[in-house]
Amino acid sequence: MHVTVEEQRRFYAEEIAAVAAIRSPSLIEAFAKVPREHFLGPGPWQLGSPDFGMQAPGLRYRPTEDSDPRRLYHNVLVSIDPERNLNNGHPSTLAAWLDALDIATGERLFHLGCGLGYYAAVMAEVVGPNGHVTTMEVDPNLARRSHENLAPWKNVEVLAGDGGLYDPGPVDVIFVNAGVTQVRPIWLDRLLPGGRLLVPLTFETGGQAGKGGMLLVKHEGDSYAAQFITFVMIYSCTSLRDLQLNGAIMKLLSSGKMFSVHSLRRDPHEASDTCLLHGSDFCLVG
After folding, report:
1. Burial code of 247-265, b = ≥16 C-beta within 10 A, e = fewer?
2. Digit-coded pLDDT (tens) for 109-139
3. N or C: which terminus of the chain has fewer CB atoms within 10 Å of its end residue's CB?
4. What is the pTM of this model?
């Protein structure tokens, strides 16, 4: 029986929902609607999978059999630039992160690190025509392509530049899709009441990618609830790296206490036993 691209995309969305235990019906619907092939250009495409060979673990790429867009509707990485190990993110992983943000219709979002714009389009579908997504990409070529790709989504603004230095204005959601060592004060300042921030706090030991955890922060009245929701390995935002915090994040990860974090403090205070990651502008408390 012939399966159409639309049917394959629907199956892909339902598979992502099952794998990542997605709660949001509108997010599942967005994955079923947004055409991945529109963002990745003509095939054949290079699909990425973990390489657990004799060398250090990394990614192994294999070409699709042909240019049939149905090849893209699996829970796999698709290469943007194999030489840089740069990919269109793993669907169920990104879906789980977006689901944790509880994005709602009509909300305003800031997205740092949009790549080719695929996940920005997914978020744009979730917030709907009365919502807005501002997305930013530091790589000028990717920013240009993302701007072209996202033209059909009128509720998306694409900016080229370093998102780590950008003031997004008042927003409901901030999604940082690049590894940093600190939570910027301006991000917390700009979260509206009830706003959510998702940011990968990572340490580097060399190379462009870092390891750490995805931190979810919620603005609740005068306080900030915070928790790490998963481990992460991700490319770094080079403008937001601090050597001292780099070591502190590595220590936190190795201590086994990362998932004990329950809140974020902004007030000046001396470090104590409850301070699991103590920075100059923020402190994660366990």
Report:
1. ebbbebbeeeebeebebbb
2. 999 999 999 999 999 999 999 999 999 999 9
3. N
4. 0.94
Strands of the sheet containing 58-63, edge to edge, are 58-63, 46-51, 77-81, 86-88
Distance CA 140, CA 158 (A): 11
Spatial distance between the Cα atoms of 224 and 242, rounded to a whole number of angstroms: 22
| CA atoms within 13 Å, Cβ hemisphere of 249 | 27
Dihedrals phi, psi of 24, to nearest 5 degrees: -85, 115
User: What is 185-236 written as a DSSP string?
Assistant: HHHHHHEEEEEEEEEEEEE-SSSSEEEEEEEEEEEETTEEEEEEEEEEEEEB
For residue 84, the model assigns a pLDDT of 81
Residue 61 tokens, joined: 């790429």
Query: How far apart are alpha carbons 193 and 220 in whole angstroms?
Result: 7
Measured distance CA(139)–CA(204) in Å, rounded: 20
pLDDT reading at 55 higher than 50: no
Question: Rounded CA gap, 46 and 76, in Å?
Answer: 10
Of the two residues 85 and 16, the one the predictor is more confident about is 16
Tokens in use for 111? 């997205």
